[in-house]
User: Which sequence fits this backbone?
């Protein structure tokens, strides 16, 4: 009996398929068996150390950070992707558990303003002074090159280009949905 097994795995961040091909020789006759099994791979949320972070976007061009804009419109101030500012007050974000329970999703706010939390509306990201109960909650998944930030609806945060408002789209294996968290300091430090 001869067995030739070749495996081909394709990973797109959401699903993995394994194709196994076996050639078995029985009584002088070759028998080929092809078998494909799709397996859904759900990455578990990763724990994030509570603290103040700079959140780097993965876009084409110079480095870019998640940035709060200055002027509020419909749902608050739009949160965009922009290059690094000399004063980080609009680009440093406090990430902490939304509730004091293990495994809780995370809330994100401006590090310098305790009442200015991230909110989602129309699948876009905003920062607004609203009660903490109205802040958006996020989970983080490890992906190649960084983390994927997911909303309560399971949509991934996406940076289109420098200057664009951050939006939420279905998770895809694309670099615009990959973020790097740069730890700056603990929350209670200035």
Assistant:
């Amino acid at each position: 009996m001869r067995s030739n097994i070749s495996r081909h795995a394709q990973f797109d961040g959401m699903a993995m398929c394994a194709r196994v091909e076996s050639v078995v020789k029985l009584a002088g006759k070759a028998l080929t068996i092809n078998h494909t099994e799709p397996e859904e791979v759900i990455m578990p949320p990763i724990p994030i150390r509570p603290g103040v972070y700079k959140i780097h976007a993965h876009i084409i061009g110079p480095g870019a950070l998640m940035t709060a804009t200055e002027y509020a419109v419909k749902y608050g101030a739009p949160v965009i992707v922009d290059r690094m500012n000399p004063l980080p007050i609009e680009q440093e974000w406090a990430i902490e558990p939304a509730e004091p329970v293990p495994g809780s999703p995370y809330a994100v706010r401006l590090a310098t303003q305790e009442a200015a939390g991230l909110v989602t509306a129309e699948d876009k990201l905003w920062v607004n002074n609203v009660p903490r109960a109205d802040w958006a909650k996020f989970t983080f998944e490890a992906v190649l090159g960084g983390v994927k930030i997911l909303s309560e609806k399971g949509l991934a945060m996406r940076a289109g280009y420098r200057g664009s408002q951050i939006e939420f789209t279905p998770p895809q294996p694309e670099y615009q949905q990959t973020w790097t968290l740069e730890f700056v300091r603990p929350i209670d430090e200035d």
Summary: Confidence is low (pLDDT under 50) at residues 1-26, 35-41. The longest strand covers residues 15-26. The two ends are 70 Å apart (CA to CA). The CA atoms of residues 98 and 133 lie 9 Å apart.
